Amino acid sequence: MAINQNHLFEELNGIKCGIVEKNVKPGRVEFLKNLLELNHFTVVVMPSPPPKTAAPAPVVTATESTAPAPPPPPPPPETFTVGVTDITFNPINAIFGRLLHTKDGHVVTLAYWQQKESVSHDDIPYFDNR
């Protein structure tokens, strides 16, 4: 159980892990895995559980109604939970504490972490950016 929402941890594949992100698409998983392994973290990826569904509607026989049956819901998108074996890891502290680095040695910025920029521009810390 986490103390607050900023420091989540749970068991993934039988290993206690600090949660990096939940419900992540496969492309994002690859980005996070490469970045975190580059920074010497052991990454654990596990498929996210499917979302809970509502109780099924009561079955109506054809003699009771002539309306067509509604189409089945689309399958849920395949998402994953990404964690690291260091349960003290907190992504917010890692980004704003300037603890993560890219493969070319730059500090990971928030825009780079969110994949809004393909290159990390770490010349000015976020608190001096006016």
What is the element layout, followed by pairings?
Elements: E1 9-12, E2 15-24, H1 26-38, E3 43-47, E4 80-84, H2 91-96, H3 110-113
Antiparallel strand pairs: 1-2, 2-4, 3-4
Q: Would you kindly provide a written description of the structure presented here, covering whatever features stand out?
A:
By secondary structure, the protein is α+β, with helices and mostly antiparallel strands. The chain has one domain (1-49, 76-118). It contains three helices and four strands.
Major sheet characteristics: 4 strands, antiparallel
Query: Would you list the SSEs in sequence order as H and E?
Result: EEHEEHH
Which sequence of strands runs across the widest sheet? Answer: 1-2-4-3
What form results from the Cα inertia axes? elongated
Structural class category: alpha+beta
Total tally of structural domains = 1
Count of discrete alpha- or pi-helical segments spanning 4 or more residues: 3
What low-confidence regions span 5 or more consecutive residues with pLDDT below 50? none
Query: Fraction of residues in helices?
Result: 10-25%
Binned strand content:
15-25%
Task: Calculate the terminal CA-CA distance, rounded to whole Å.
Answer: 38 Å
Round the mean pLDDT to the nearest integer and report it: 82
Question: Radius of gyration over alpha carbons?
Answer: 21 Å
This entry's quaternary arrangement is single chain
Tally of strands: 4
